[in-house]
Design a protein that fits this description.
The complex is a heterodimer of chains A (275) and B (470). By secondary structure, chain A is α/β, with parallel strands linked by helices. Chain A contains 8 helices and 16 strands. Chain A has a 7-stranded antiparallel β-sheet. Chain A has a 7-stranded mixed β-sheet with strand order 11-10-9-8-12-13-16, sandwiched between helices. Chain A is globular and about 55 Å long. Chain A starts with a strand and ends in an 18-residue tail after the last helix. The relative contact order of chain A is 0.16. By secondary structure, chain B is of the alpha/beta class. Chain B has 3 domains: 113 residues, Fumarate Reductase Iron-sulfur Protein, Chain B, domain 2 (Orthogonal Bundle); 167 residues, FAD/NAD(P)-binding domain (3-Layer(bba) Sandwich), CATH 3.50.50; 151 residues, FAD/NAD(P)-binding domain (3-Layer(bba) Sandwich), CATH 3.50.50. The chains are: A alpha/beta (275), B alpha/beta (470). Chains A and B meet through strand 7, strand 14 and helix 8 of A and strand 5 and helix 12 of B.
Chain lengths: 275, 470
């Protein structure tokens, strides 16, 4: 059993939990994820690691209460425990010091983006971030990002906070205004990662994305998470979850993510879904 | 009692095909005590014990069968369990027809003794009637780590625990058993029985760490730093192979691993009572001809598919599946499309709509000794299906290989071992099961686990007597 050490609401339907999981905490790195089961009859869902504390042996996860299992998870309180919590899964993001990076976090995608940008900042990289969501109350972690980011830009679809518009419009405006970046890291809904990649490709601007397909075991055993990258089939769980954004077949990924749409209420399609 | 000279095995009661395709309960129901005694009397009690030589774990076959014939089922179990820590499982899934039974003298004129059915009977009897007997053992305080809680790891752990070692099994999934839990379906191997038999085998205080992935959560080198003095790797060949043909990423295409894991481990057959779903079309094509393909096809039928096809590129004689599985599949209405090879999965709106195959014929034998299938040019044809399940085997998981310096592996990923001891190229590290052989059988993995346990014991005794000067 894996005790819940802390729990807090980040907005109306996004929550953060700190879980005691020493075997995950000892080696996990930015970009990696875990799979959990809330209870004995539960399904396995992947969630990205948002933060970790090696001394305490704890790992923090951020999730949107969107489906059957995240609702069950949300019912748990501090002091309760969840039955299974395995990781770290996936390859760590390949982070190396560069001059300047801009991160783009769509909705709850800001959570996995956070450790990556933080580590880059610690390596001496100058970091900007664009946080985008439908409306103000869906923006998360702004304060945390502002601690190390030079510029934190916010966009909302309805204009209730920051600039009204999409993250891609903001990125284009920045680049048009002469801002120079060596790399983009975009994490959020597949449709957002697709359009960020389409925008940056003609600029030759390297763009890293983190994918969240359906998976069962997370160790390469089921192959459910196959994605086409550069014309080749990859398993997101062991070859990713990070890939070169310009090589990913996003349309196939979106289609595959909708495989259990009719089973929506009990879907195992979790990860970093932002509706 | 007089010997039973019938040339035929005592038949085992089974659920009728038209009934069993509507449920996930076990197909074969097992012998009654009377049937077991009847069958045991077919054993000639050969002094030369040819059957034992065919058993990878050397079960005392004539001896336990003798006890059955005397009606002493408890003693029969004690003899059986001495060499095999998972007899209820092996009685069900071992390919006895190519191991012990093929060597049975009775098989020369008629059917061999039904060793597998008797093993199953004795193990089931013990599970239902005997209190667990935990032998007194003297702990030696030496720690051994086992990576992977499948048949190889469980056997190695059980054996070492009996010798007094402090054994810890590290399992990546949330349940022990490996392929016994996620792969083999409930109707062939009930999961509560697997859980019970595993608990029994590990009753000597084996520690279990679930949700730990060796190579990710902790490395082999770190295990040694933490005080483990030997490590056994039995992580299986769980990485599914795909055909690499067009349309394989369409919705509705599963690896057999994913399909069976959803259905078995995650109990998707009970959806929506459980949260994990599985998609099943009216028409399902399973590609492959092994036991896993049969399991997938028969599971698909039980999940409600109307037409289920096995698509296999060679002929019936080359089917790698056990004859019994093929027989059961046919009884259940599985349609065999033999000498057919898929070349393309057809799609409509992103979902599987059909399978394009090409006809094959058999040419000269290849390196495996089986006749090589050759494509008949221009013989392509299509048929409609909504689900395609790829059951063409898998390769070893690379995680441990990639994170363990000094561990040598074959090009295809199998860990290289000394076959007598299962010792790898790295000091103190042993390996066995599918991660060494590629996809094989439960019992071969168990045999490897047992062999490794003996070798680990010998090596550790030696090093300890040296360090203590004893």
């Amino acid at each position: 059993m894996y005790p819940i050490l802390e729990k807090k609401k980040l907005n109306n339907n996004v929550e953060e939990m700190v879980i005691l999981a020493p075997y995950v905490a000892r080696h996990c790195e930015p970009g990696q994820f875990i799979i959990l089961r809330v209870d004995a009859e539960g399904e396995r869902i992947p969630l990205t690691i948002a933060e970790y504390n090696r001394e305490k042996g704890s790992v923090s996860i951020i999730y949107q209460v969107a489906g059957f299992t995240t609702r069950k998870l949300s019912e748990k309180k501090v002091g309760d425990a969840i039955v299974d919590f395995v990781g770290p899964l996936g390859r760590p993001t390949e982070l190396h010091p560069i001059k300047r990076v801009i991160g783009i976090g769509g909705g709850v995608g800001a959570a996995p983006l956070y450790p990556q940008l933080k580590k880059l900042s610690e390596m001496g990289t100058s970091v900007d971030v664009i946080l985008g969501a439908r409306s103000k109350d869906l923006i998360i972690l702004e304060e945390k990002f502002s601690k190390f980011c030079k510029n934190v830009y916010v966009t909302t679809d309805d204009g209730s906070y920051g600039v009204k518009g999409l993250v891609t419009e903001k990125l284009k405006a920045l680049v048009d205004a002469g801002e120079k970046y060596d790399e983009v890291i975009a994490i959020g809904p597949v449709i957002m990662m697709k359009f960020v990649s389409l925008l940056t490709q003609p600029w030759g601007l390297k763009t890293n994305v983190s994918l969240n397909p359906i998976m069962v075991d997370g160790t390469g055993m089921c192959g459910g998470c196959r994605v086409t990258v550069g014309g080749r089939t990859k398993f997101a769980c062991v070859d990713g979850p990070d890939f070169d954004g310009h090589q990913v077949d996003y349309d196939e990924l979106m289609r595959r993510q909708s495989m259990y749409k009719t089973e929506e209420a009990h879907s195992c399609k979790i990860g970093l879904r932002v509706d | 009692m007089p010997p039973n000279m019938s040339p035929k095995k005592v038949p085992i009661p089974e659920q009728k095909p038209d009934e069993r395709i509507k449920n996930f309960q076990e197909v074969a129901l097992g012998y009654t005590p009377e049937q077991a005694v009847q069958e045991s009397l077919r054993c000639l009690q050969c002094k030369t014990r040819p059957c034992v030589a065919g058993c990878p774990v050397s079960v005392m076959i004539p001896e336990f069968i003798k006890k059955v014939s005397e009606g002493n089922f408890e003693e029969a179990y004690r003899l059986l369990a001495k060499e095999n820590c998972l007899p209820a499982i092996c009685g069900r899934v071992c390919p006895q027809e190519t191991q012990c039974e093929i060597l049975c003298v009775r098989g020369k004129k008629g059917e061999p003794v039904a060793i597998g059915r008797l093993e199953r009977f004795v193990a089931d009897y013990a599970m239902g009637h005997m209190p667990q007997e935990v032998p007194e053992i003297k702990k030696n305080g030496i720690q051994v780590a086992i990576a992977g809680g499948g048949p190889a790891g469980l056997t190695c752990a059980g054996e070492l625990a009996r010798m007094g070692y402090d054994v810890t099994i590290f399992e990546a999934l949330h349940a022990l058993g490996g392929v016994l839990m996620y792969g083999i379906p409930e109707f062939r191997l009930p999961k509560n029985l697997v859980a019970k038999e595993i608990a029994n085998a590990l009753s000597l205080g084996v520690k279990i760490e679930k949700n730990v992935i060796i190579g990710k959560s902790i490395t082999v080198d770190e295990l040694f730093q933490e005080g483990f003095q030997a490590v056994f790797i039995g992580c299986g060949a769980g990485l599914p192979s795909f055909l690499k043909i067009e349309g394989e990423n369409l919705n509705g295409v599963y690896s057999a691993n994913e399909f069976l894991t959803r259905a078995n481990l995650m109990k998707a057959y009970d959806f929506p009572n459980v949260p994990t779903p599985v998609k099943i079309g009216k028409r399902v094509a399973v590609v492959g001809g092994g036991n896993v393909a049969m399991d997938a096809a028969r599971t698909a039928k039980r999940l409600g598919a109307k037409e289920v096809y096995i698509v296999y590129r060679r002929s019936e004689a080359e089917l790698p599946a056990r004859a019994e599985e093929v027989h059961h599949a046919k009884e259940e209405g599985i349609i065999f499309k033999l000498l057919r090879n898929p070349v393309k999965i057809l799609g409509k709106d992103g979902w599987v709509a059909g399978l394009e195959c090409v006809e094959m014929e058999l040419g000269e034998p290849d390196e495996s000794g089986r006749r090589r299938p050759i494509e008949k040019k221009g013989s392509n044809f299509e048929f409609p299906v909504e689900t395609v399940i790829i059951a063409i085997g898998g390769t070893p998981n690379p995680l441990i290989r990639q994170t363990t310096p000094g561990l040598e592996a074959q090009k295809w990923g199998g860990i290289i071992v000394d076959e007598a001891t299962m010792k790898t190229s790295k000091e103190g590290v042993y390996a066995g099961g599918d991660i060494v052989t590629g996809a094989a059988t439960v019992i071969l993995a168990m045999g490897a686990g047992k062999k490794a346990a003996v070798a680990i014991h010998e090596a550790l005794q030696k090093s300890h007597s040296q360090t203590t000067g004893a």
